[in-house]
Amino acid sequence: MDIKKVIVTGGTRGIGRAVSELFAANGYTVIAVYRSDESAAKSLQSDNIIPFCCDITDKSELKKLIEAHSDACVLVNNAGVALRLPFDAVSDEQAREIYMTDLYGTVEASRLLLPHLLHRKDGVIINVSSIWGRDGASCEVDYSTAKAAVIGFTKALAKEVGPSGIRVNCVCPGIVDTDMNGDLSYSDIVDFTDGIPLERMAEASEIARSIYFLASAEASYITGAVLDVNGGL
User: Fold this and answer.
1) Catalytic positions, please?
2) Residue whose C-alpha is closest to residue 168's, from 128, 208, 112
3) Are strands 49-53 and 29-34 parallel, antiparallel or unpaired?
4) What b/e string do you get for 101-118 counting C-beta neighbours within 10 Å, with b at 16 or more?
5) Residue 34 — φ and ψ, nearest 5°?
6) Which of 45, 77, 149, 178 could bond to 14 as cystine, CB 3.0-4.6 Å?
7) Sheet of strand 124-128: strand arrangement
8) What is the spatial distance between Cα 209 and Cα 14, in angstroms, rounded to a whole number?
């Protein structure tokens, strides 16, 4: 039996790390893409998990990633950055970092892998958006905008490539207990969780399980979907 391969961007920390570990535990070869945190990458490396250093905002680096792993049957576009500042206080450099990482990297990684998926006539692309991509967030306007665009990208691409047997779906996490939210104070967390019916933050593993489900045969008739994993928020 052929071993399936998955590419996970932002695959060595937070949600991405949980995704890498879950796919590996289920027999996949995982290409865990990271940009700079070599220590996190080394701590994750195993027989099934291969860290790959790549700046997904750089198309030449993305091309090297896809050329090296064009046999991947699943792409999880998870890499993302967030910033909490008033909209008019965000610098050009900060805005560019958000859009290039959260949107451009997702779109271009998909564009580069797609011809190989079309040749296979199967494959799955799963994009990680955010509840703020659905609802918007004050002081996270650029992040919300980029993540909303990821939802639109998912729906449009799913319609285009569905006839070729390729599924494209999106997961929208709520607030997750990862280092992306590590700057939140205790009172911030209480304020957030007070509005969540399940009254807690998500664990990264819970988001990972939703992503793995969408990649699995159990989701064989699901495409163009936007799955909320937010505790009812």
Assistant:
1) 143
2) 128
3) parallel
4) bbbbbbebbbebbbebbe
5) -140, 160
6) 178
7) 49-53, 29-34, 5-9, 74-77, 124-128, 167-173, 226-229
8) 13
DSSP 8-state symbol, 203? P
Dihedral sign, Cα of residue 11, residue 30, residue 106, residue 15: negative
For residue 4, the 8-state DSSP code is: P
SS3 58: coil
H or E stretch at 49: strand 49-53
Contacts of 214 (CB under 8 A, 6+ apart): 124, 126, 167, 169, 171, 222, 225, 227
Given the structure tokens 């859009």, which residue do they identify? 99
- For tokens 């050329």, the residue is 67
For the chain, the straight-line distance linking the first and the last C-alpha, in angstroms and rounded, comes to: 41
If you compute the radius of gyration of the chain from its CA atoms, what whole number of angstroms results? 17
Tokens 């199967």, residue located: 122
Integer Cα distance of 169 and 182 in angstroms: 28
